[in-house]
Amino acid sequence: MPPTIHFRVPLTCTNCGSLNDARSIRLQTAALGNDPTDTNLDPGETIELDDEEFDTAYIDTKPHATEPTFSAIELWGCRVCHKLRAARLQFRRRSPAVVEFVGATVVQLSTEVLQEARYVTRRLDEWAPLPGDDVERIAALEARPR
Question: In principle, which of 31, 33, 43, 64 could form an S-S bond with 2, CB 3.0–4.6 Å?
Fold first, then answer.
Protein backbone atom coordinates (compact mmCIF):
# COMPACT_ATOMS: atom_id res chain seq x y z
CA MET A 1 0.00 0.00 0.00
CA PRO A 2 1.46 3.40 -0.96
CA PRO A 3 2.20 5.95 1.73
CA THR A 4 -0.59 8.35 2.64
CA ILE A 5 -0.59 12.05 3.45
CA HIS A 6 -3.09 12.84 6.20
CA PHE A 7 -4.23 16.48 6.09
CA ARG A 8 -4.84 17.50 9.68
CA VAL A 9 -7.43 20.24 9.67
CA PRO A 10 -10.83 20.35 11.42
CA LEU A 11 -13.85 20.23 9.12
CA THR A 12 -17.57 20.23 9.86
CA CYS A 13 -19.70 17.65 8.05
CA THR A 14 -22.41 19.25 5.93
CA ASN A 15 -24.59 16.16 6.41
CA CYS A 16 -24.73 15.77 10.20
CA GLY A 17 -23.06 18.97 11.43
CA SER A 18 -20.36 17.13 13.39
CA LEU A 19 -16.94 18.69 13.77
CA ASN A 20 -14.25 16.26 12.65
CA ASP A 21 -11.21 17.33 14.64
CA ALA A 22 -7.79 17.69 13.01
CA ARG A 23 -6.26 14.66 14.73
CA SER A 24 -8.98 12.17 13.75
CA ILE A 25 -10.32 13.48 10.44
CA ARG A 26 -10.34 11.11 7.47
CA LEU A 27 -8.93 13.57 4.93
CA GLN A 28 -6.05 11.95 3.13
CA THR A 29 -4.40 11.31 -0.20
CA ALA A 30 -2.59 8.11 -1.11
CA ALA A 31 0.16 7.87 -3.71
CA LEU A 32 1.21 11.49 -3.27
CA GLY A 33 4.92 11.97 -2.76
CA ASN A 34 7.87 9.65 -2.36
CA ASP A 35 8.05 9.41 1.41
CA PRO A 36 8.11 5.70 2.34
CA THR A 37 5.93 6.28 5.42
CA ASP A 38 2.62 7.99 6.08
CA THR A 39 2.84 11.74 6.73
CA ASN A 40 0.69 14.08 8.81
CA LEU A 41 0.46 17.58 7.37
CA ASP A 42 -0.91 20.53 9.35
CA PRO A 43 -1.72 23.94 7.79
CA GLY A 44 1.46 25.96 7.36
CA GLU A 45 3.72 22.92 7.03
CA THR A 46 5.71 22.20 3.88
CA ILE A 47 6.46 18.96 2.09
CA GLU A 48 8.60 17.99 -0.89
CA LEU A 49 6.18 17.49 -3.80
CA ASP A 50 6.58 18.44 -7.44
CA ASP A 51 3.96 18.74 -10.19
CA GLU A 52 4.66 15.22 -11.45
CA GLU A 53 3.77 13.77 -8.04
CA PHE A 54 0.49 15.72 -7.99
CA ASP A 55 -0.23 14.48 -11.53
CA THR A 56 0.15 10.89 -10.32
CA ALA A 57 -2.17 11.27 -7.33
CA TYR A 58 -4.78 13.58 -8.90
CA ILE A 59 -6.47 14.42 -12.18
CA ASP A 60 -4.74 17.57 -13.43
CA THR A 61 -7.47 19.84 -14.80
CA LYS A 62 -5.01 22.59 -15.83
CA PRO A 63 -1.86 20.83 -17.05
CA HIS A 64 0.00 24.00 -18.02
CA ALA A 65 -0.91 26.15 -15.02
CA THR A 66 1.95 27.91 -13.25
CA GLU A 67 0.21 29.79 -10.44
CA PRO A 68 2.05 29.59 -7.10
CA THR A 69 -1.18 28.90 -5.21
CA PHE A 70 -3.50 26.10 -6.28
CA SER A 71 -6.15 23.77 -4.95
CA ALA A 72 -6.96 20.08 -5.06
CA ILE A 73 -10.35 18.51 -4.45
CA GLU A 74 -10.26 15.47 -2.19
CA LEU A 75 -12.98 13.31 -0.64
CA TRP A 76 -13.14 12.81 3.11
CA GLY A 77 -15.31 10.68 5.36
CA CYS A 78 -17.17 11.99 8.38
CA ARG A 79 -16.25 10.03 11.50
CA VAL A 80 -19.83 10.34 12.86
CA CYS A 81 -22.23 9.75 9.94
CA HIS A 82 -19.65 8.10 7.61
CA LYS A 83 -20.83 10.13 4.59
CA LEU A 84 -18.27 11.20 2.02
CA ARG A 85 -17.86 14.92 1.47
CA ALA A 86 -15.55 17.00 -0.69
CA ALA A 87 -12.84 19.33 0.59
CA ARG A 88 -10.73 21.92 -1.19
CA LEU A 89 -7.08 21.54 -0.20
CA GLN A 90 -5.14 24.79 -0.67
CA PHE A 91 -1.43 24.71 -1.49
CA ARG A 92 1.27 27.31 -2.10
CA ARG A 93 4.32 26.42 -4.21
CA ARG A 94 7.46 27.47 -2.30
CA SER A 95 9.93 26.09 -4.87
CA PRO A 96 9.71 23.68 -7.81
CA ALA A 97 9.96 20.77 -5.35
CA VAL A 98 8.33 22.13 -2.17
CA VAL A 99 4.71 23.02 -1.40
CA GLU A 100 3.06 24.44 1.70
CA PHE A 101 -0.28 23.02 2.81
CA VAL A 102 -2.30 26.19 3.46
CA GLY A 103 -5.52 24.59 4.71
CA ALA A 104 -8.79 22.97 3.68
CA THR A 105 -12.47 23.85 3.48
CA VAL A 106 -15.60 21.81 2.89
CA VAL A 107 -16.99 22.37 -0.61
CA GLN A 108 -19.71 21.16 -2.89
CA LEU A 109 -18.60 19.83 -6.27
CA SER A 110 -20.27 22.72 -8.11
CA THR A 111 -19.26 24.00 -11.51
CA GLU A 112 -17.42 26.95 -9.92
CA VAL A 113 -15.44 24.79 -7.48
CA LEU A 114 -14.45 22.34 -10.21
CA GLN A 115 -13.42 25.15 -12.59
CA GLU A 116 -11.19 26.71 -9.93
CA ALA A 117 -9.47 23.48 -8.84
CA ARG A 118 -6.13 22.59 -10.38
CA TYR A 119 -6.37 18.97 -9.21
CA VAL A 120 -9.29 16.62 -8.55
CA THR A 121 -9.18 13.32 -6.67
CA ARG A 122 -8.93 10.09 -8.63
CA ARG A 123 -11.40 8.56 -6.15
CA LEU A 124 -14.44 9.95 -7.99
CA ASP A 125 -15.85 6.43 -8.27
CA GLU A 126 -16.58 6.67 -4.51
CA TRP A 127 -18.53 9.93 -4.88
CA ALA A 128 -22.34 10.05 -4.76
CA PRO A 129 -24.11 13.09 -6.27
CA LEU A 130 -25.47 15.79 -4.01
CA PRO A 131 -27.88 18.57 -5.01
CA GLY A 132 -25.89 21.29 -6.77
CA ASP A 133 -23.01 19.04 -7.84
CA ASP A 134 -21.92 19.34 -11.47
CA VAL A 135 -22.67 15.72 -12.37
CA GLU A 136 -21.74 16.06 -16.05
CA ARG A 137 -18.35 17.61 -15.34
CA ILE A 138 -17.55 15.01 -12.69
CA ALA A 139 -18.47 12.20 -15.11
CA ALA A 140 -16.16 13.73 -17.72
CA LEU A 141 -13.31 13.92 -15.21
CA GLU A 142 -13.89 10.34 -14.12
CA ALA A 143 -13.81 9.17 -17.76
CA ARG A 144 -10.34 10.64 -18.37
CA PRO A 145 -7.60 8.08 -18.97
CA ARG A 146 -5.32 7.50 -15.99
Answer: 31
